[in-house]
Design a protein that fits this description.
590 residues; 5% strand; mainly alpha; zinc-finger; zinc; 5 domains; two-stranded antiparallel sheet; repeat; globular; single chain
Length: 590
């Protein structure tokens, strides 16, 4: 897949999907993916990068490989326009403004002026906000700390007891298939055959660490699984590959981070444990050992306890637990955990608890101070509880919390929707279409037994469903099946048969999207005006793009259209003819 090298920057202006603010739609729906590459190529022309990211169907690995060859940078004129936008629209997402600056370089000066005025006056109320950008950057920083910027000490702050975390993952996630784990295993063990990796993953009940240990033992057999140039691993480091792969599940990334850095983490933990033992022996000799008077843990160092004004000692874990429960109840006077009448020192507690809990304490303190002041016309942000006094006739409340910055309608407490009324905002075309899609979603996902009419939804296992009444039903085509297993195929696709095993996450998303496309095709005929300027990305379910493979043929993560047609009860030709609804281009050609 190779694009012709773009010539001047006008090629970005001519990219078909960028028309009618299509560039904004694409950016909003793929913000986190886009920001990952902006972080790696900070001086890249924003529209240039967005065009290639869209061309490669938001595959970050392929886009990164393309950018590594050559990319266009922002020019001086674009930077001047961007500077004007950032000074004028301080509450907007800065990357959104950079895209806008490059776009309006090719528009008239009046178009830029109208764009700025439309945001300042509230005419354009829905645009990427600075608060959302900050949230995304915070998430990406966490992702980087678990992948490309991994540091053992930082990891242990995020995951203080990784072995306990892995054991809990084994207990709670056992027997639950995870496609991202399998993708990681394919990339890590590139010399091993795919069927072998899959088999070991199933044998270990989808437990990642145990599967990795077993596969690493197999990799030691150099004669059976030799290193070869054909199977050589990508030049991208494994951490970068994981970061760009689209895996955004923090819990999974913690598990992978531990697997990738197990030796370093265990060495650091053993070193810390040895140093603590030395400190503990010295403390015993000096008679400076403490006991938690809540959980009764013994042999605590002075750095591991907090004492109330009367000297009652508690471990930091117990302190954090009681403080969190009291703050949740909106209480700041925290009594000693014994029958002592003393309050715990709140300022000292702020230095003990984690950062998020400390922020909640500070926020609660401010709220109580404002309540005590009995100030009129107080308004609170529904997203972060920031409180401020605003004029009574003001319709929109702007949160001044730098980490939030949301604009809220004071009437319905939702995000600013002016010039639409609250009722009009509820009845937007997106809501009307989404309601139809959600109704169709229930219809296509829930099964009814043809005998007793019992309703059920499958979330795991094979596609042979046995109703409590004893009837065997195929989950795909919904027919009563007998003899049972002759109805299905397993390892290879067979005509006129249904698959015995499918990944429910993929099946459900694919079927719902196909159902949504059918509804939209119908509405193009029955009510085309409703579809004008509707953002399809907000209506359709999220789909992770297939991960790039470097191993040749293997089982596809996509679902065959024949399977989708059977579930929907539609003709397969009709499903084959459906167009991609995820682009502005496909929805604007009514």
């Amino acid at each position: 897949m190779e694009l012709q090298e773009p010539e001047p920057s006008t090629v970005f202006y001519k990219y078909p999907k960028f028309k009618y603010y299509g560039w904004e739609t694409i950016y909003v729906e793929h913000q986190k993916q886009y920001l990952k590459l902006i972080d790696k190529y900070p001086d890249v022309n924003r529209l240039y990068l967005l065009m290639y990211l869209d061309f490669y169907k938001f595959d970050l690995v392929l886009t990164d490989l393309r950018m590594a060859k050559q990319y266009h940078k922002e020019d001086e004129e674009e930077l001047q326009i961007i500077d004007v936008l950032k000074k004028s629209l301080k509450k907007a997402d800065p990357v959104f403004l950079e895209l806008a600056g490059e776009w309006f370089k090719h528009e008239s000066p009046n178009a830029l002026k109208e764009f700025i005025e439309s945001i300042l006056t509230g005419k354009k109320s829905k645009y990427p906000k600075l608060s959302t950008y900050n949230d995304n950057i915070e998430t990406l920083n966490l992702l980087k700390s678990l992948t490309i910027n991994f540091e053992t000490t930082q990891f242990l702050k995020i995951c203080p007891d990784p072995m306990d975390y892995i054991l809990k993952a084994k207990t709670h996630l056992c027997y639950k298939f995870n496609g991202d784990k399998l993708t990681y295993l394919y990339d890590k063990f590139y010399r091993l055959p795919v069927p072998l990796i899959q088999a070991e993953f199933f044998v270990k009940h989808f437990h990642l660490l145990e599967t990795v240990d077993a596969l690493e033992d197999m990799m030691l057999d150099e004669e059976k699984y030799p290193e070869s140039s054909e199977n050589a691993r990508s030049q991208l480091a494994s951490g970068m590959m994981i970061y760009l792969s689209g895996m955004d599940d923090i819990d999974l990334l913690k598990e992978i981070a531990f697997v990738e850095n197990k030796e370093a983490v265990e060495y650091h933990m053993s070193t810390e444990a040895s140093m603590r033992l030395i400190e503990l022996e010295e403390a015993k000799m000096a008679n400076l050992i403490y006991i938690c008077e809540c959980c009764y843990e013994t042999e605590l160092l002075i750095s591991e306890v907090y004492c109330c004004p009367k000297g009652h000692s508690f471990c930091l874990k117990c302190i954090e637990t009681i403080v969190e429960s009291q703050v949740t109840l909106k209480k700041l006077e925290i009594k000693c955990l014994t029958e002592c009448t003393e309050n715990l020192n709140l300022e000292m507690i702020k230095n003990i608890v984690n950062d998020k809990l400390c922020e909640r304490i500070v926020s609660l303190e401010q709220t109580k101070e404002i309540d005590a002041a009995n100030i009129e016309n107080l308004e609170s942000c529904t997203f972060c509880n920031f409180v401020a006094s605003v004029p009574q006739d003001l319709k929109v409340f702007t949160c001044l919390n730098p980490k939030c910055g949301k604009e809220l309608c004071r009437s319905c407490k939702k995000e600013n929707h002016l010039p639409l009324s609250c009722y009009e905002n509820i009845q937007t075309p997106e809501v009307v279409i989404r309601t139809r899609i959600e109704n169709k979603m229930s219809e296509v996902l829930i099964r009814n037994c043809p005998v007793c009419k019992n309703r059920f939804l499958k979330d795991s296992g094979c596609n042979k469903i046995v109703c409590p009444c004893g009837t065997s039903i195929c989950y795909i085509c919904k027919k009563i099946i007998t003899p049972i297993y002759e109805h299905f195929y397993h390892n290879r696709i067979m005509p006129n048969k249904c698959p015995l095993f499918t990944d429910e996450n993929v099946v459900h998303v694919a079927v719902v999207e196909a159902a949504a496309r059918l509804i939209i095709d119908e509405m193009r005929v029955t009510n085309p005006n409703l579809l004008i300027r509707v953002n399809m990305n907000k209506l359709l379910p999220k789909i992770k793009p297939p991960q790039p493979r470097r191993r040749g043929d293997e089982i596809s993560v996509s679902i065959d259209n024949e399977v989708i047609a059977k579930i929907l009860g539609e003709n397969v030709q009709k499903i084959n003819s459906l167009k991609d609804m995820r682009t502005l281009e496909s929805t604007s050609n009514q």
